[in-house]
Design brief:
Blueprint: H1 40-46, E1 56-60, H2 67-78, E2 81-84, E3 97-100, H3 108-117, E4 124-128, H4 140-147, E5 150-153, H5 159-172, H6 179-188, H7 193-210, H8 216-222
Parallel strand pairs: 1-4, 1-5, 2-3, 3-4
Helix pairs in contact: 5-7, 6-8
């Protein structure tokens, strides 16, 4: 089944019974990572882990900024084990390690053990939304080590990254949207992959149900700006 080719300014949609929504998880490899000024410094540090002091790096950024993607890139290259901070109870056999969400529910003594073991042969990458100085941990020796960690900070997705996300999510549904739709969404939606996917889903659903073209006016209605 194929869809009609879109015009330059609108896309004629088939009926709801013909919808083809092909959602796929965003691939977490280097080729799929969208590099931009918002993440260039962090990407460079991920790709040069020999520069991490004492083999430790904290990757910091808001939700949807790309922390998990960068951590997956490093884990694949380093052969690292990936574990959620809340599941960290003891050091797992040494070696490279990614600890996700280190600012949420981590066991302080287990994290201290990771820091004690970290080094060139057992580097550790920690992801979090906030800087280590703000993590709710009360172990003094751990606190001093956290405060001394090198930081790689990510900003929220900029226009280049968010536009590429929107294009990908539309493409998964065999849609090539008018440029005016993408430009409108860039100014209106939260800057995260989750928000971009949600906006595309809602616009596609509205267009299918109403048998309307995908236009900026439809996008405005979907976002409640009527």
């Amino acid at each position: 089944m194929t869809r009609d080719a879109p015009s330059a300014e609108s896309l004629v949609r088939p009926g709801a019974q013909q919808r083809l929504a092909l959602e796929r998880p965003w691939p977490l490899d280097r080729e799929s990572f969208i590099a931009s000024p918002a993440n260039a410094a962090a990407l460079q540090l991920i790709e040069t882990d020999t520069a991490w002091p004492e083999g430790r790096l904290a990757l910091i950024g808001p939700e949807g900024s790309g922390k998990t993607h960068l951590a997956a890139i490093w884990a694949a290259r380093a052969g690292a084990q990936v574990i959620a901070a809340a599941d960290l109870r003891a050091l797992h056999a040494g070696g490279p390690l990614v600890i996700e969400d280190a600012d949420r529910g981590v066991n302080a003594r287990a994290l201290f053990a990771v820091h004690e073991a970290a080094g060139p042969s057992a580097p550790a990458l920690l992801t979090a939304r906030t800087r280590p100085r703000d993590w709710p941990l009360d172990l003094p020796d751990l606190r001093s080590r956290l405060n001394a960690m090198m930081l790689a900070e990510l900003s929220s997705p900029d226009d280049e990254v968010l536009s590429a996300m929107l294009d990908r999510f539309f493409r998964e549904r065999n849609i090539v949207p008018p440029k005016s739709v993408t430009a409108f969404l860039l100014r209106r939606i939260e800057r995260s992959a989750a928000a971009a996917r949600r906006a595309v889903e809602q616009i596609d659903e509205a267009a299918s149900q109403s048998r309307r073209n995908i236009t900026r006016d439809l996008a405005r209605e979907v976002l409640g700006e009527v």
